[in-house]
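Changelog-adjacent note: as of this version, every example in the card shows the full chain rather than a window. The one below runs 96 residues end to end.
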Amino acid sequence: MFVVTLTYIRPLAELDALMPKHVAWLKKHYRSGLFLASGRQVPRKGGVILARSGDRAELEKLLEEDPFVKNGCARVEVIEFRPSMTAPGAEVLKEI
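Full-length structure tokens:
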């Protein structure tokens, strides 16, 4: 399991211009089952993606294709962890 943080490094207007491509990229990886949740940080200085993947290098390669990252508008950090406990109904988070 991975927590991915995006930190915006360009003005929000540049990110907003890329938003349709970013959302399409997110949806592609939701369909594949890689992404479980995502959203903006509050305040809006970046984003967070919850991903499940057995291969960190493969995930990092995919993250480089995010239009925000690819166009130099955000930098990405990946934190890996192994969920050992979950709330009822969230057991899927422990399965890889």
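Structural remarks: The longest helix spans residues 12-31.
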